[in-house]
Amino acid sequence: MSKPLILVTNDDGIxxxxxxxxxxxxxxxxxxxxxxxxGPQSGQGHAITLVSPIRIRKRKIFNGVESYECSGTPVxxxxxxxxxMLKDREIDxxxxxxxxxxxxxxxxIYSGTMSAAMEASxxxxxxxxxxxxxxxxxxxxSASKYYAEKLIGxxxxxxxxxxxxxxxxxxxxxxxxxxGIKVCEQGEGTWDEEFQESLDPRGETYYWLGGRFxxxxxxxxxxxxxxxNNYISVVPSHHNLTDYASMDSFVYLEDNS
Amino acid sequence: MSKPLILVTNDDGIxxxxxxxxxxxxxxxxxxxxxxxxGPQSGQGHAITLVSPIRIRKRKIFNGVESYECSGTPVxxxxxxxxxMLKDREIDxxxxxxxxxxxxxxxxIYSGTMSAAMEASxxxxxxxxxxxxxxxxxxxxSASKYYAEKLIGxxxxxxxxxxxxxxxxxxxxxxxxxxGIKVCEQGEGTWDEEFQESLDPRGETYYWLGGRFxxxxxxxxxxxxxxxNNYISVVPSHHNLTDYASMDSFVYLEDNS
Lengths: 257, 257
Fold this sequence. Notes:
The structure is a homodimer. Chain A is an alpha/beta fold. Chain A has seven helices and eleven strands. A nine-stranded mixed beta sheet of chain A has the order 3-4-2-1-5-6-7-11-8, with helices on both faces. Chain A has a two-stranded antiparallel ribbon with strand order 9-10. In chain A, α1 (17-26) crosses α5 and α2 runs parallel beside α4 (112-122). Chain A is globular. At the A-B interface, α2, α3, α4, α5 and β7 of A face α2, α3, α4, α5 and β7 of B.
């Protein structure tokens, strides 16, 4: 294989510590191009910018690595990379993250990090989204970098069909404390939401979304179990949302026409 | 069953013709409460509002139907409904739409309409997202209303596990031209994107996302095939993104630790 071309993006913005860590690892493997949002885009899910224009700005932020920030969402960043910065070039791997905070279980659904990676996979590019279970800006990414290097190396050697997507979550532990890597299924969980209700200076009510994630810890095959038990979770994921198991139960709808 | 409680939302905003059509149908079945974005939110995917407050305003817009508009995304609207307007009440069904434009195939991933419905299903509420394959503001929803009524009636009778989600797409045809309803899987497709590059009045470059959806029409089980062949497509969908078929191919990653 010639030197692979690796696209790096994220949802915490190009200035975050997580993407810097990921760029440092990625440059060991090939040519890296960064296209990332110009500011935090957490919780953007698979949002795209349709009703307003997008701006691109070249940045000199990572040592000798071609880098761009854009004004849109994480998914926009991948679309821009594919259609503009890396037009007519074959991208071998897309890396997203390292996210500051978990994207395990159903958090994948809300995640800009994973949506960017999924967008790449929908375009036939193998992609990995990395997330560390630590929301702090100054999170310690040393174990994440160690394992990201292993996983990126393995994924670059993967010979199967293109467009594969991995959701990688890393517990907030040292390299020594982490027990290894588990290939898992997406665990079940719920968000126990709480809206903060308050008054603004003009006396108008506003609401602010907060809450707490509650994961179902009993399923030994799930990413939640793996993370609770000091493993890194790797969930092969895809964009086919069909609930095949329920198809038969809904065939009765056809009789209705 | 007592009179069911039905939550109606959408992503085109509370003023759109599509949600008006859906409210008209829903009120035939039970008590309807509308919580919808105050403006267009297409392409918002599963975005949520984390970094700014959300406003709610009571509206008198649909005849005698309790209605609220909110400043957030479609998913925010469902979270608000569940936690504020309908707190402590059991929602029997969530309806989203009727969207102006297709959400078949991978469009479900970008869709605010379907993400709102999915958010409800993630909370254990049965949910249906409706989309008409007509982007125009003045689209003719008469066939959509006819079939929405059939499907809502059937879904209210469904006795299986809660939290089921249906992605319903309706071809741009008259009632007579529509051949019936097909239960399908999510078809494959791609977006052939094109960024319009232009200069603003200050001479700065901007990009605007456009493009064309290209669906794979050969799969006779897919929603794309059904719609091409004048059927309404119903895809049972869910939020479990695990690519089970690929799990074995990635077990080799575990040996890496």
